[in-house]
Amino acid sequence: MFHTEICDLLGIKYPIIQGGMAWVATAELVAAVSNAGGLGIIGAGNAPAEAVREEIRKTRSLTDKPFGVNVYFMSPFVDEVMKVIIEERVPVVTTGAGNPGKYIPNLKEAGIKIIPVIASVALAQRLEKMGVDAVIAEGMECGGHIGDITTMALVPQVVDAVKIPVIAAGGIADARGFLAALTLGAKGVQMGTRFICSKECTVHENYKQAVIKAGDRSTVVTGRPTGHPVRVLKNKLSRKFELLEEKGANPKEYEALGAGKLKAAVEGDAEYGSLMAGQIAGLVNEIKPVKEIIEEIVNDARVLLDGMVSGKKWR
Amino acid sequence: MEILDRVKKIIADQLGVDEDEVVPEASFIDDLGADSLDIVELIMAFEEEFDLEIPDEDAEKIKTVQDVIDYIKNHTS
Q1: Cβ–Cβ contact B61 with A under 8 A
Q2: Would you call A102 and B41 a contact, using CB atoms and an 8 Å cutoff?
Q3: A276 with A143: CB under 8 angstroms?
Q4: Among all residues of chain A, which has the CA nearest to that of B30?
């Protein structure tokens, strides 16, 4: 059930992908997701290439299943990280915050599947022409760096515009979101926030508890004037960002305030750390093992789907 | 129609700016309010209008209206 083209493309059991969150998606979480039948993705973030290599090798020691690395295009180490990925023969690469066009030929030559995260129809079409294997259409409900369009509006428009499979991301954390995404024409989903609150995720308990505590209106978007807006949970740091915005600060001041704050959050500073999370955080109320998260989604989706036809109530 | 006029029309349509603002020295990002996704759309529109393929390496170098005009002149017969 729910076996899609994405499962065949990536060699996975369920079409569920874990977002490559910088600092958050480490080998432990990645391997747990891949072992549970999804696709785990290491978040390379701003890490230097050799640190990424270590994480790749550690992941390999924990799973023999396919996994990926997310390359963040605002990192100063993109060239070196791409080189490591090719040397280590990582099965899948996802990319974010930029256009991966010029790396596509080398990745393809190495037999690596390439799946860019996109937030517009035009970029999806352009990347399809360059030969990417699939795209992740990510709506602005997601945590971290965001685009302008919601998942509900973006996914079907991308699905209609390209022939390659589309994976939906942003605002998905349970079977309802999963099924909705498939209904919009996606062949799989990527989730980030849901996996932060997994047993295997190595972020500090304070970060997880902040997500658990979050409600529907707990996230804010900071840094809009810089052209790189980021969604985070409201806290003292996000308030500082708002004050910068009010006084019309320049991009350097944003950069200075943001530097090292995601790492701080991952290490437990819930007040002044950058607690990246999506709008769906309000739906995430429990820390569970990864396997349970994934299986619950697939099993519930089946019940839900049957219920739509038979009228039987879900839960 | 002249290349300049066709380019102007595309830019004005895509970015919702007045054609008068689309002067050769105007930068897409700094003067015309475009973001990186707008530029992808513009590049695709130029490709279609002028029957071109603009690879990413070249697209990255296109910053102003004049850059586009030069590119089109050099890559069409």
Answers
A1: no
A2: no
A3: yes
A4: A227
Q: Are A22 and A197 in contact (CB under 8 A)?
A: no
Specify if A121 maps to a domain: yes
Please answer whether residues A237 and A274 qualify as being in contact, where contact means their C-beta atoms are separated by less than 8 angstroms: yes
Q: Which domains does chain B have, with CATH numbers?
A: 3-75 (1.10.1200.10)
Q: Of these residues, B5, B30, B35, B67, which one is catalytic? A: B35
Least Cα separation, residue A102 to chain B (angstroms) = 6
Give this complex's ipTM. Answer: 0.80
Q: Is B35 a catalytic residue?
A: yes
In the numeric block, the tokens 């860019």 are attached to A116
CA distance A135 to A27: 23
Beta-sheet strands, E only, within A92-178: 92-96, 113-118, 135-138, 144-145, 166-169
Structure tokens at A119: 């937030």
End-to-end alpha-carbon separation of chain B, Å?
A: 15
Task: Walk across the sheet containing A230-233 and list its strands.
Answer: A144-145, A230-233, A219-222
Let me know whether A19 and A165 are in one domain: yes
Q: Which mean pLDDT values do the consecutive 10-residue runs of chain B (77 residues) have?
A: 89 92 93 90 94 90 94 88
Please check whether residues A108 and A90 belong to one and the same domain: yes
Q: How far apart are CA A280 and CA A258, in angstroms?
A: 23
Amino acid at A73: F
- CA angle A58–A4–A168, rounded 5-degree value: 75
Q: Give residue-wise pLDDT tens across range A66-121.
A: 999 999 988 899 999 999 999 999 999 999 877 888 899 999 999 999 999 999 99
**Containing domain of residue A254, as a range?**
205-267
